[in-house]
Amino acid sequence: MKNEKADLQRTAIKAMYSNYLEMGLDACNSYNQTPKDQTLTLEFHAKESKKYQHKAEALKTVLDLLDSLTY
Predict the structure, then answer these.
(1) pLDDT confidence of 6, banded at 50, 70, 90?
(2) Each residue of 29-58: pLDDT tens digit?
(3) How far apart are the C-alpha atoms of 55 and 27, rounded to whole Å?
(4) Angle between helices 2-33 and 39-70 in degrees, nearest 10
(5) SS3 letters for the chain?
(6) Confidence (pTM)
(7) Rounded to the nearest 5°, which phi and psi values hold at 43?
């Protein structure tokens, strides 16, 4: 039962990690498609991209730590 819960938690973290990577990529794509004269929009997309990148990196660290504890 304990392993099942750990597996479910790891799966949830992997899903969140994947979602944050995808949202960061979407923000990058939006940034690249925004005309350069729309500085507020560019700043928004840049902030969003960084925010999701940092969240994904944090989740990757958690996954690495979990892997080091279980293997």
Answers:
(1) confident
(2) 999 999 999 999 999 999 999 999 999 999
(3) 14
(4) 160
(5) CHHHHHHHHHHHHHHHHHHHHHHHHHHHHHHHHCCCCCHHHHHHHHHHHHHHHHHHHHHHHHHHHHHHHHC
(6) 0.83
(7) -60, -40
**Amino acid at residue number 3:** N
- Both tokens of residue 16? 């969140």
Instruction: Please give the single-letter amino acid code of residue 19.
Output: N
Residue 1: predicted pLDDT: 61
Q: What are phi and psi of 36, to 5 degrees?
A: -65, -20
Dihedral-angle region of residue 38 (phi above 0 means left; psi in -120 to 50 means alpha; beta otherwise): beta
